[in-house]
Every structure is written in C-alpha cells, then in structure tokens.
Amino acid sequence: MGQLVEDLLTLARIDEQRPLDMKPVDLMVLGHDAAFDARATAPDRTITVIGLDGGHPRSAPTRGDEARLRQVVANLMTNALRYTPEGSPIELAVGVAPVLHGHSDAILEVRDHGPGISEDDAAKVFERFYRADTSRHRETGGTGLGLAIVAALVAQHDGSVRLEETPGGGATLSIRLPHVPAEDQADDVDHADEAEAEDDQEHAYSNGISPPQAPSTKPVVHKQREGR
Ligand SMILES: Nc1ncnc2c1ncn2[C@@H]1O[C@H](COP(=O)(O)OP(=O)(O)OP(=O)(O)O)[C@@H](O)[C@H]1O
Ligand SMILES: [Mg+2]
Question: Please, what is the average pLDDT of the chain?
Fold first, then answer.
C-alpha cells in the first residue's frame, strides 16, 4: 500500500510538470550502483555491468535529475529480479551510441534472461496499471505502475525507452538519453540549443506514450536530434 501511494505521487508529480533538477549524470555510475544494490538483495544472482558490445562498460554522460534517473534504473532492476527465475543472471549494459546527424545517445540497458514479454503485452506494459496476465506474475503483487513511471520520467528527460528481446530469450529494457559529454557541461549550457529544442518537440517515443508537456523549467538538452 505504501508503495502504491508513493508510485501514484510520483506520477502526479510528473503530470503536474514539476521542474527537474538537471545536473550532469553518468549512466555508468547509476548502472554500477544499481548492480551493487541488486547484488545485496539477490546474492544468488550474477549481476554484471558491461559495455553495449559486451566488453567493458563506457562512461555514458547525460544531463538529468539524478534521483529520478536512479528511480528509472531501480524500477527496471526490480522487474528483472521479480520476473526471472532465481539465480538467473542480469546484465546492465551502458555506453554511448551514435544516432543521426553527428549526435549520440547515452544508453543503459537492463538485459535479463527470464521468460521475456510477449508481443501482445509489449504494446501495453508501459500503460498505467497494466500487468501481464500470467499466474506467476499475478503472484508477485506489483501494481503495474513501475514501467509507466519509467516511461514518463524518461520522456520528461527527452529520452526514450524501448523493450527488446534479449538474444537467447528474456527481456531487455533500454533507455536512451541525449549524450552530453562532460566537457560540454563545464560552462553553463548553450542557450541556442535550448531555443532549438523548443522548436523541435517532435520526438519518437518507441513506447507510443506522448511525453508530458514541457516542465516549467525546461530540461536542457544537448541538442534535439531529427528523425529519431
Ligand atoms: N523483465 C521482465 N520480464 C518479464 N515480464 C516483465 C518484465 N518487466 C515487466 N514485466 C511485465 O510487465 C508488467 C508491468 O510491469 P510494471 O513494472 O509496470 O508493473 P509491476 O512490476 O507489475 O508493478 P510495480 O512495478 O508497480 O510494482 C509486469 O506485471 C510484468 O507482467
Ligand atoms: Mg515493476
């Protein structure tokens, strides 16, 4: 009950567009911290932080509200632990990948090796209160808000979240945020970029959820990419 109230409050805050506390954040740090926490709650698991190509993890700097981004990763990790068999390994893959027009994304993926999410459910799992209708999942007692919160928080950060199948089976939840190299964050932001961001509200949200309206303090983005 406490968690339900907490989740509903989180969604209410997003809906009313409370300003984000935007600061430099490295998704690699968040990945390492989430892995550390998960190892403590599930010592039987092998939880590794890797690069997007399976090698060493790479720094993945962005700008964001650290507390909220930590919640995004925690929600994904809770699901990976909850919906996969005991002992099943989990990888957190972090790094930077190019998108169009010379821009790139900071990416964090939670890759599990459980039953995965069926195509029918995949379209709906980001909706509020949606839970996949399997008896095993029903027993676990979530409320179906975790991924809705993930989608809303990531959208608020001008990012996207997508669900893919892990090679060999399982669910991979991948969040992409604008890559903002640390050196670009030394001075305060280029306001030309802000103006440009305002002109380009269109953004592909692979989960099909529209982003909330721009918060009163607009999240500062490196630069909006076209054609995503
Ligand atoms: N990694 C996963 N593997 C398999 N199924 C998943 C996974 N993550 C989510 N799901 C399915 O998607 C549904 C929605 O997930 P979501 O996190 O939104 O809600 P929940 O986990 O049921 O509850 P809450 O997160 O609010 O405690 C889950 O009920 C589950 O059926
Ligand atoms: Mg959940």
Answer: 83
Is the CB–ligand 1 distance for residue 171 below 6 Å?
Answer: yes
Location of structure tokens 């959208």 = 155
CB atoms within 10 A of CB 209: 17
**Ligand 1 mean position to 164 CA, how many Å?**
14
10-47 per-residue burial string, b: 16 or more CB within 10 A, e: under 16: beeebeeeeebebeebbbbebbeebbeebeeebeebeb
Angle, CA 203 vertex, CA 214 and CA 101 arms, to 5°: 120
Evaluate: CB of 166 within 6 angstroms of ligand 1.
Answer: no
162-221 pLDDT, tens digit per residue, is 999 999 999 999 999 999 998 887 655 445 454 444 444 444 334 444 444 333 333 333
Query: What domains sit in the chain, N to C, each tagged with a CATH number?
Result: 2-199 (3.30.565.10)
